[in-house]
Amino acid sequence: MVQINSWKSRNPLDILTSDGDFDIICVQEPHHNEALNARDFPDYALIYPDAHEKHRVSVFVKLASIHPSCICPRPDLSQDGDILVIEFTFGSIKITLINLYNDCVTRAGVKSLRFALPRLDPRSKILVALDSNSHHPHWDLLTKTPTREEDFELHDTFITNGLVLVTPPDIPTHTSGNVIDLGFCSTSLFMAITATVDPSLCVGSDHLPIIYTLDFEVKISKSIKFNSDKMDLDSYLGTL
Residue 34: what pLDDT? Predict the structure, then answer.
């Protein structure tokens, strides 16, 4: 999976899908040609919070890798166009992905998270990919940008809900040298996930892409075949 804020960039999918390596592409501040992206890259399904007039988050899912039956958007947890919640089912494993854009002025993303996170099973596997627009020593000890109260509120929201930082701290994700693009996950997922900032995949944005690798064994249970020869039809119909 890759996370990218594509603001000010050329079409990110031209590069990100060139090798076909990414099953999920999390986009913050999507390119203005997003609808064309969906047309030009039919191998990917485009998901966004369509209940809202405007949105600043979207997710592309490679259908050759993830069957549509394994994808379940949660619009009930998306209060606005800046948060997208999707449940993915891989065999017996269910992962909830939250893609979030936290507005640099309103910091409304904190409110959105405080609504969504408590409504998820705390024992479940959760991954939050976000453009935080926030500065905090927990992820950027070297920043010279003044912190605000909302920055600490964002940090506390993650901690209160049992999520831990999975992206490397103090590694810049923005051309300014700041660390603002982040990934947090539940403790049950932490050992199975790695995150790396990869400048080589930069698509012309002032943000740097983050690559997530999830390493776990997918166990798919075998379906039970019904033997109609052993069926007592009369008894069955009698109980209806």
Answer: 56
- So what's the pLDDT on residue 41? 74
Strands 57-62 and 44-47: antiparallel
| Residues 44, 220: Cα–Cα separation, whole Å | 23
- Under 8 Å between Cβ of 13 and 27: no
Each residue of 154-182: pLDDT tens digit? 999 999 999 999 999 999 999 899 999 99
Question: What three-state secondary structure class fits 14?
Answer: helix
110: left (phi over 0), alpha (psi -120 to 50) or beta: alpha
Predicted pLDDT of residue 216: 72
Looking up tokens 């948060």 gives: 83
Question: What are the residues facing 141 on neighbouring strands?
Answer: none
CA–CA distance, 127 with 120 (Å, rounded to integer): 12
Token couple for 224? 């039970």
Instruction: Give the ranges where the chain is alpha helix by DSSP (H).
Output: 12-16, 34-40, 109-116, 149-160, 187-190, 233-239
Residue with tokens 């990917």: 44
Q: Report in angstroms the alpha-carbon separations of 39 from 45, 60, 63, 161.
A: 10, 12, 14, 38
Closest CA to 209 of 220, 200, 219: 200
SS3 content of the chain, % helix, strand, coil (to 5): 25, 30, 50
Rounded distance between C-alpha atoms, residue 209 and residue 3, angstroms:
6
CATH number of 2-239: 3.60.10.10
Helix (H, G, I), strand (E, B) or coil at 135: coil
* Domain boundaries along the sequence of the chain: 2-239
Low-confidence ranges of the chain (pLDDT < 50): none
